[in-house]
């Protein structure tokens, strides 16, 4: 025997829970099905468990944060902005704090507070949450020549009949959290196109051993340019935190850069150009180098490097420059100083690939947004079928922006669902 609902939400992540809460606040009867044994598994690990759930910025900055399909989210961001997200969670008792880059976290630094607040609100509103309930297929019927989604069938054979079915299943990154691409299967079964899927906001592999030699070194204020090595075209530029690893590079700055180049890595040689001293232009850096060399002329050049670089970077720079360990500061000529200056401002690494979906924060690609109405997030192909969150072909750089896509798309969708 099946059950009936006005709204069926498939997926208990950020977008799914927000959809359920907003729809239930409107007085609609909501059933939320989640195949995991608990809600918000991916949300739980977001921001290293701290949950960077928003970015305290204006709507234009939200739009600029998007990597693809910027126009699609404009209306949703205007209807439910970052400020609205912060106020929404404040209303649920989640106090927040804002850190570097306007990233907003729970004051407690616990992602579980965000999840618990949504769970508590769903309980208060009477949302029927069905855990460990995997959807086998979505159901469709023909109503006078128009295809209509009528709900779903669970893997147990149980049918859930609904007036509106919202797919909020996420992507395929971090599969252990339940993101196994179910939504793409449902979309294709309804006749939707799904654009190619790539790991996005993922660390990068590099060719040079210099990265692994500096493994564990974190740069809090690095400049970065990403170039098409053959054409010399600038693909991305940014400033922020990055980390050298045993395989290459990671950190917020790198994750954002990866999103702009992931689709071209198979056919283009991509170079990373790292600026270790972004606060100094070349003239000021040259003056700094001269000053350091003149402070103690008898010092070794390697000891001079220690005043300019983190300790893990010193032997790498010395090796790349081919410097004799015994070279004294007073013996450094203008040519060698120029080489050091160039290396500090233009430290090059060659990208060989990106890490896979198990290390990617989000999925690039998804349900084609041309086939979804941005005013309601309803399918243009099948009535009563909606898509929200990461399952859509929309993504952004790191910093709380991708969760904002989830909150805003879910809110706008839920506010427009028929009663």
SSE topology sketch:
Layout: E1 3-10, H1 14-25, E2 30-33, H2 41-45, E3 54-55, H3 59-65, E4 66-68, H4 74-79, H5 82-91, E5 96-99, E6 103-106, H6 111-125, E7 128-130, E8 135-143, E9 146-154, E10 159-167, H7 182-189, E11 198-200, E12 204-206, H8 210-213, E13 218-228, E14 234-244, E15 248-250, H9 252-261, E16 270-275, H10 282-295, H11 301-306, H12 314-321, H13 334-345, E17 347-354, E18 362-364, E19 385-387, E20 395-396, H14 401-416
Parallel strand pairs: 1-2, 1-10, 2-7, 10-19
Antiparallel strand pairs: 3-6, 4-20, 5-6, 8-9, 9-10, 11-18, 12-15, 12-17, 13-14, 13-16, 14-15, 16-17
Description:
The protein is of the alpha+beta class and 419 residues long. The chain has 2 domains: 255 residues, FAD/NAD(P)-binding domain; 153 residues, no CATH class. The protein has 14 helices and 20 strands. The radius of gyration is 25 Å and the shape is elongated.
Overall 3D form: elongated
User: Separation of termini?
Assistant: 24 Å
Class based on secondary structure composition and strand pairing: alpha+beta
**Rg to the nearest angstrom?**
25 Å
Question: Which regions are unreliable across 5 or more consecutive residues at pLDDT < 50?
Answer: none
Q: Indicate the proportion of strand residues.
A: 25-35%
* Integer count of domains: 2
List keywords for this structure.
419 residues, FAD/NAD(P)-binding domain, 26% strand, alpha+beta, 2 domains
In short:
This protein is of the alpha+beta class and 419 residues long. The protein has helices spanning 14-25, 41-45, 59-65, 74-79, 82-91, 111-125, 182-189, 210-213, 252-261, 282-295, 301-306, 314-321, 334-345, 401-416, and strands at residues 3-10, 30-33, 54-55, 66-68, 96-99, 103-106, 128-130, 135-143, 146-154, 159-167, 198-200, 204-206, 218-228, 234-244, 248-250, 270-275, 347-354, 362-364, 385-387, 395-396.
């Amino acid at each position: 025997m099946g059950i009936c609902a006005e709204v069926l939400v498939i997926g208990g992540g950020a977008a799914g829970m927000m959809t359920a809460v907003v729809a239930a606040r409107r007085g609609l009867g909501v059933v939320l099905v989640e195949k995991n044994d608990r809600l918000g598994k991916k949300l739980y690990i977001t921001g290293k468990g701290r949950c960077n759930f928003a970015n305290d910025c204006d709507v234009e900055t939200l739009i600029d944060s998007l990597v693809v399909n910027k126009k699609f989210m404009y209306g949703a961001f205007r209807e439910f902005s970052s400020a609205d997200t912060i106020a929404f969670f404040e209303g649920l008792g989640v106090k927040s704090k804002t850190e570097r880059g306007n990233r907003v976290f729970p004051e407690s630094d616990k992602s579980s507070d965000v999840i618990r607040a949504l769970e508590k609100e769903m309980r208060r509103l009477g949302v029927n949450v069905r855990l460990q309930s995997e959807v086998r297929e979505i159901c469709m019927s023909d109503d006078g020549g128009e295809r209509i989604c009528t709900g779903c069938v669970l893997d147990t054979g149980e049918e859930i009949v609904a007036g509106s079915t919202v797919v909020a299943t996420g992507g395929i990154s971090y599969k252990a959290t339940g993101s196994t691409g179910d939504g793409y299967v449902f979309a294709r079964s309804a006749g939707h196109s799904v654009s190619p899927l790539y790991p996005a906001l993922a660390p990068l592999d590099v060719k040079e051993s210099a990265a692994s030699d500096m493994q564990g070194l974190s740069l809090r204020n690095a400049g970065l340019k990403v170039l098409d090595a053959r054409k010399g075209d600038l693909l991305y530029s940014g400033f922020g935190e990055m980390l050298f690893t045993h395989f290459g590079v990671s950190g917020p700055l790198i994750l954002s850069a990866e999103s702009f180049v992931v689709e071209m890595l198979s056919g283009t040689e991509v170079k990373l150009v790292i600026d270790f001293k972004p606060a100094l232009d070349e003239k000021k850096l040259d003056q700094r180098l001269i000053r350091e060399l003149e402070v103690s002329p008898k010092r070794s050049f390697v000891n001079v490097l220690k005043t300019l670089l983190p300790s893990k970077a010193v032997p790498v720079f010395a090796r790349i420059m081919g410097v004799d360990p015994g070279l004294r500061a007073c013996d450094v000529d203008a040519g060698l100083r120029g080489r050091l200056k160039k290396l500090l401002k233009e430290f090059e690494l060659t990208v060989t690939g990106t890490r896979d979906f198990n290390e990617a924060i989000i999925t690039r690609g998804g349900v084609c947004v041309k086939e979804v109405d941005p005013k309601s997030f309803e399918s243009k192909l099948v009535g009563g079928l909606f898509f929200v969150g990461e399952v859509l072909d929309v993504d952004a750089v790191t910093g709380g922006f991708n969760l904002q896509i989830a909150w805003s798309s879910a809110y706008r969708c839920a506010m427009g669902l028929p009663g």
